[in-house]
Prior knowledge:
Blueprint: E1 8-13, E2 20-27, E3 37-42, H1 55-60, E4 63-70, E5 83-87, E6 100-102, E7 118-120, E8 124-125, E9 128-129, E10 145-146, H2 148-162, H3 176-189, H4 192-199
Amino acid sequence: MIKENSGKIYRFKLDHNQGYGFAEVYDFTDFSEFDGRIIYVYNLVDEEQKTEYDLENIHKSGIAIGPIRIMDFPGTRGKYALKYIGQRSDFLITEIPITKELNEMIIRESNWNNFERWYRSDNFKNGDFIFSKYSELRNLETRILSSTVSVATKFTMKILIDNNKDVAEYYDLNEVGNYNMFVQLINTYYSLEKATELLSKTKNPYIKETN
Length: 211
């Protein structure tokens, strides 16, 4: 881990005027240039921007989503800029996190519990897979690469769900990108029962209906 680039906290704007969230970034590009950029999002949401922040209060709110692999480190200038607000020395992690992996085509099914070829990234050695039940690794993240914009969208979706709001009233879930984030979110951060309920109200845009 590159310590001088890790533990940095940023404020970002949520979608649909839901306020502002906070994320902490880690740099493992010394371990993997491809997916060594990692972000966690905290539970704390502020309705308005502030001029000063207490990093410890942000940390105490707990992690909402993550560790998510991101394509690039947050930019602090431009249209999708994040606001850098400080750096913590008490790191959340010091080693690159374990992920869940699937040895199948993931887009064919929205309920990830229905796949049988899941394995942990630390259970793949010398070309051999050790498969697990999805319930055993449900709360692990994947290595799917995201932009900081899509991370903000995913967290906004979580806030909407947690406040008993219909995500489809805010996002077009027929749009593949939105649907993918929705599926990733509910299959990782919600129970099988809750995910099944949410999926029952949506249609998989990859599957074409026939008459």
